Structure formats: structure tokens, C-alpha cells
Amino acid sequence: MLSIDYRTADLSAVLAWSEGDDEQGWPSLIRRLAMDHTQNAKQESARALAMPWYNFVALRGSLQNIFKTYNLKVGTGLIVSDAAKALLQQSTKAANGYDNAIAQKGIDEATLRNKLCQLGFARSLSPEQCRNVSKMAALPSAATFSVPGAGKTTEALSFFFFKARSNERLLVIAPKNAFAAWDEQIADCMPSLKAEIVRLRGGRDKIEKALMDDPRFMLITYQQLARVGDLLAAHLAQHKTFVFLDESHRIKSGVAKQTARSVLALSHLPVGKLIMSGTPMPQSTDDLIPQFAFLYPEIEADAETVVERVKPIYVRTNKAELGLPPITRHRISLPMAPLQRELYRLMKHEVARDAASALSIRSKQAFRTLGRSVSRLLQFVSNPALLASELNFSKADLLSAVLDEGEGPKMRYVLRRARQLTQEGKKVLIWSSFVRNVEFIAAKLSDLGAVYIHGGVDAGDEDDDETREGKIKLFHDDPNTMVMVANPAAASEGVSLHRVCHHAIYLDRTFNAAHYLQSEDRIHRFGLPKGQETIVEIVQCEESIDETVLERLAYKIHRMAEALEDSSLMVDPIALDPTDIEDYDDYSVGLKDEDVQTLLRDFEKDAF
User: Fold this and answer.
1) Is the model's pLDDT at 200 over the cut of 80?
2) Shared domain check, 413 and 445
3) Whole-angstrom Cα distance, residue 558 to residue 316?
4) Rounded CA gap, 227 and 262, in Å?
5) How far apart are alpha carbons 45 and 49 in whole angstroms?
């Protein structure tokens, strides 16, 4: 007799059978199916195994085939607990909802507008927003991949208020730098509610106390959720709640990272779900798999099928629809200094060794070591002085000679170009992936009022010049603050500079396409003055890792453009808060297997 139960303590499906069943074929088939299809399945005893519920419902079709083959039916060789039965019925309903989505035409726009008006929704939806929400509102779970400035938060709130009953709640999981936008948007969209979004923060005890007050609107960071997932699961099980993932590409790592596992573990509990991202697949189509699994864990998807699975349930407003002119990009290619080039050649062989090791060993530690090596190489090309603090550097004498050559060609160009632009009265945004570069540039340009943002700059009051918000306000309002220097890992989300700045310079970039695209969007978004040109300069060294980054970013962006059917993402390949981050090396450098393979190819191409 096979029993299927739902264990609330860890949100797992538990499958167990009796000793007499061992002689039949189905126990071994079920065990093999579970172990082959999820890293999270655990054999808890000789005749019992457990797996996260979202993994279990994804295997429903395969399990049903086994049940059919061995004539296992409820009451005849199969027992399903009441809790498991209720969740399976919910999964069937969700799967049917997905099937219906393929044929749905969406909610009538007049019906949508009328209901929102009756509810007191004050913001008038644009034609694109209305089109998007009409499609999403017909679905149990949906995705909005609209570009920054298109109003994803307004779309999300429209989706919630149209679908939710008065006793249903909303939990938003988001990076902390997006919290303020949710406060502002709910106040603008539903002013009559005078709604307060409760921020779930401050540790386990404070979050538990906040949940006991049963707020209708809640915000929590991805990192915090990973620590208190059991509290949220219990709350969602007791209260009908919609769950939205803002910047949903944060869970692209899937079961490999605790953050994504914590989110996916909740996927069977909400009454409605929405994912939101302007860059939903920054590395590859694989990035979509966990995001789709959160929405529809019942529907199997892999790298080959996930794009087609996502198409019926996502909406997107692109930059062309917003009337934004394309970005003007310039690639500034510079030769390395002679001794810098010599040391670079020696360093890249060490990286090549680490890359070959990562591809052959395929361990987390090997990839972490490679990430650090690649980061070092990118730092050295951008600013050799960043390696000066490495007391045990293997080529200390050569490094010392390289440092005598000065700041490096890229850094010299960026500093000189920033001064030239500010003399023309233009504010300048400078990007670097490395904190010491960010602070170094700001110090060098302090006479231009330069301010900086990286992960060490805390959020806070905009009247405090030392906070993230204070620095942004200075750059916006102070005519003496002509330069902002920023780190994409900390400032590529939740910052709008397009009204005062139209020129960005990239000292360096990494393999992380989301960082690059979202950082560009800080100055290229809805609300630009009419006819305003946006200029981006990408500074790189010839015959260096910069060229590999250029190639891989172009490839990733084109793949995303094809998947989202958005030609505005087609970047010309020729001209082209760490507190929220679980694995900073992986997140900031953004390496994938294909990136490593391309690196090795490029290193071998100009070997000496």
C-alpha cells in the first residue's frame, strides 16, 4: 500500500509503503523517478522518501503513469491524506488554468477599467498597461517582463486588486532597494485605502510578531525570506495570500541556492502569483526554469521547453512602445601599457588553469575559485593598482613595475573623459563592478562633487548625504555634484537618473547581463525629455578578457531578445546590495559554463 502525505513542518511530500510491497516493481520505479528528477529527494527510511512539494507536483504525470501500470488507485493500493488531496486538487486547478491560458483572450479592457475604478484605483492605466493587465488578470499566475519605467509595479497592483477578494493579502518578495517604490505606488494607486506595507525585517522574533498582527500588505527581502521561510509558510497556509516576486531573476539559480529554494518551497501556498523582471533570463534560458516553476510547479519545463511554456503567461512592454529612441553606444578600445600586457599574459594562464579545473571537476569550490580568478583579471585590466594590496602576489617585482606605469589606460581615459564632459555642463554616470574602483574614481573626481554608491552605502533618509538616497538626491539636485560612480551589483536596480544624466561610462563590465542591461536603464527609461540622446561609452582593453565579456554579453542579450521577442534588446555586439546576495563572487562575475569555454578559447587563440 502506497501512502502519500503532505508534511507541513518542511513543506514536503512523503511517500511510504509497506514491507510486502518490496516484491512489486513500483517502489523502485518511484524511488528512481524521485532521485533522478530532483536534487532534494531524500530516502528517509528503507520504505519512505520525501521531497519538496513543488518537486512532487512536477512529477505528477510520471507518477500517474506508474500508478496506471500497477493499477494503484485511491482505495486500491493507494492512500492519499486529506492535506495532500487538497493540495493535489489545487495543483490540478492550476494546471488547468495554465492550459486555459493558451486559448484565453484576456479580460475585456472595459471590464478591467470599470472594476478598478469602482475599487478606487486612482491611476489610469496606459494602453500598454491595460493590454498587459487584461491578459494577466485572466490567469491564476502570470509574469510581467516590461522594461524599467513601463510601470511593472502599477501592473502588479492592478492585477492584485482586480483579482483579490477583500480578505486576501499580498506578500511581495523584493530587493530592499525596491521597497520604497512599493510604498509610493500603493499610495498613488489606492489612496483611499491609506494602506501601509509592513516590512518584515529585524530578525525572526520581530517578523513573527509582525505576522501575528496579520497585515494585509507585506514586503520581505529574498535574503530574509531564506531565514524565516517556515514562518511565512505557516502564515500563507492560514491566510489566503497573493505572492509577487519583484526582480524575479533573483531566483534564477534554482535549487542550487538557498534563496531560490526558500521561494520555490512556498510555490504551492499562494492563491495567486506574479513574477516581475525586466531581465528574466540574464544568463541563459535556464534562468527561466525556476521562475516558471514558482508560477506553475505542476507544469514540467526544461531548457528546451521553458520559453514556449512561458510565452502564454507573460506580458512585456518594450522600449520601442514607450517611444524611447535607441541608445547610442561607443566602444572605446585601448591598448594595454607594455608591462601591464606582459603581466596580463602571465595572469591569464593561471585563470586558464582554474577554468579547465572548474569544467572538469564541476564542484562549487572550483567555480568559486575560478570566479575569484576572473574577478582579479577584470580588476587588473581596469586598474592594475587594485592588485597592489596582494602582499603575496606571485609576480611582485613585475607588478611593482606595472604600478610605476600609472593608473592604467582605461582608468586614465575614464577620468579624463569625465572631466571633459563635465566641462561641457553634462552630468556623468560612471560604472565599475569593483568597490575600490568606485571609491578611487570618486576620490579622484572629488573636485567635481563626485558621489558614489556601492553595497557598503546604506539606504536611508534622502536628507542625509551619506545614504544611498541622499547621494542620489545630490546628483539630481545639486549643480555642483556632476559625477556619480556606481557598482552595478548595488545600483542597477531601483535608481532613476534619466532626468538629469544622459551619459554613462563603463570602466569595466562582467559576464552578468542583468547588471549591464539594468545599469543602462538607470539613464534610459520612460520619462526622458523629448529628443534626448542617451550615450553609453564602453571602455575596454584590446586583446583582453574585456573582449570575451563583450562577446558573451552580446550573445546573452540576443538570446533574451529572441525569447522575449523584443528587438530593442538587440545590442550591437561591436558597439556595445551585497546584503541581498547569497554568493557574491558568482553574482557579480556572472560566469556560466559557456562563458568559461569562451574564455579558454580566447586564451588559447593568442597564446604565446
Assistant:
1) yes
2) yes
3) 16
4) 8
5) 7
